[in-house]
Amino acid sequence: MSGPTTGDQGLPEKEEDETGAPGLEDAVTEAMAEAGMADEMAHAASSSSPTFRQLADEGDGPPAQDLGRLQAERDEYLDALRRLQAEFENYKKRVIKQQTEHLERAAEGLVSKLLGVLDTLELALAHAAHDEAGGPDVEVRAVAQVSAMVNEVLAKEGLERIDPLGQRFDPTEHDAVLHEDGEGPPQVSEVLRAGYRWKGRVLRPAMVKVTG
Question: Is the dihedral of CA 124, 127, 132, 135 positive or negative?
Answer without folding.
Answer: positive
